[in-house]
Amino acid sequence: MQWTYSVRLVFGGSMPSVPCQAKFSRLRCCRSNHRSFMNLRSACSEGLSIDPNYPRVMEPTGLARFLFELASDERLGILDAIADTPLRHAQIARHLKMTDSETTRHLNRLASTGLLMKNAQSQYEPTNLARLVSAGFPFFRFLLKNRDFLLKHDVRVLPSEFVERLGALTGGTFVNGMYDVAAAQVRYLRAVKHRIWVLTDQMFEQAIPILREKATMGADVCVIRSREGFEREIARLPPVERNYPVRLVPGARIFLAVLDDVAGVCFPSVDGEVDMEAMLLLTDPSGHRWASDLFAHEWSEAGEWLGPPGTVKR
To answer: What does the alpha-carbon distance between residue 232 and residue 113 come to, in Å, rounded to a whole number?
Structure first.
């Protein structure tokens, strides 16, 4: 008597039939069947083709391990505590309200990754590597603080160097609602004495008299408009004599206003439209500097110049 077995592979196809002889007792037949099954396993292994270039074991990069060592409120707290002033073991434990053994364990783990060292006075201080790593923390704090907003808005329309500096916006606060955003813009514009820099794709006829007035009083007024938005406005409104320079760009993908000591930015939602119902208000020096640098970058990139009579391109 001859039994025949076949095995179908998971992703299609089947292995050739393998005969098994059953000549003696039932026990011997079972043993034979077992040997045939083992032969099938071997045949399956030999019959599959594996790309020789495919890594059999993932090469460790060390990044996951490095991030794992940072993934602790206590260890991040230690790096923050010693960022400006080296501290002894007991001072760190007291500052972070940890036991001596806990403090020792966290210090050892940070030392093993090259993030802190012990100086001649037995004080712990961050290494140069730790200072570089800590420089990136504000970026992640901004992402976490504004996670819900960022899920619905696209900040990647910014030049890459300003995406990398998003941590500078951590101190910003949102003004929400179309009315409140518009009211805040007019209120801050009226208070300006020295500077008004605006990048916008929106109709802002209410602001034009304010811009003209501030420019007459000697304020530095510069405006970047999208060509489409500018043409839309001049088609709708009577001609306006400007006493401040305007530059045109193909598209203004954000709203940005940089005033004396405050700045505001509106980002596009995921559908690409600038969301004027949520303005990030920047009143701290770090955020204001980020906004000023961004406007200066966009101003230098804008090609078309529409300066008032008698002015020269800057």
So the answer is: 58
